[in-house]
Amino acid sequence: MQYFGIRDLREKIGDFTRQAETGVISIISRNGTPLTVNIPFDDMLIDLGAHKSLAIKFYQEEVLTLNKAARLAGVKTDEFIKMLGSAGVCVLGDADELKNELSRF
Question: Which end of the chain is more exposed for a tag (fewer CB within 10 A), N or C?
């Protein structure tokens, strides 16, 4: 994930667009306060929508845990795991850790 301030955005628009082209999510802020999230326009965004696409990308980048990403996607953890598999994203952690997380739900 990349962070850009308004001034950075004006001065580094080339960096911003290159990051978007490679699939990197960017957060744009003013005076340290986030204003907007830039989600790269890709097939996953079209197929799954913004919440699910963001959840998968945030999980993949280890910004969110499995449970929090599932909540952002608006689905149960086991359904989110299936979504990750369909997107070609490996579930992080070992089997015991995953069982513990699932049993909490």
Answer: C
Q: How many CB atoms lie within 10 A of CB 24?
A: 15
Q: Under CATH, what is the fold of the domain 2-38?
A: YefM-like fold (3.40.1620)
Which position has the token pair 């990349």?
A: 2
Q: Which part of the chain is CATH 3.40.1620.10?
A: 2-38
Largest CA distance in the chain: 49
Q: At residue 104, what is the residue type? A: R
Instruction: Report the chain's terminal Cα–Cα distance, integer Å.
Output: 29
Phi-psi category of 93—alpha, beta or left, where left has phi over 0 and alpha has psi -120 to 50?
left
Whole-model pTM? 0.68
Q: How far apart are CA 103 and CA 39, in angstroms?
A: 32
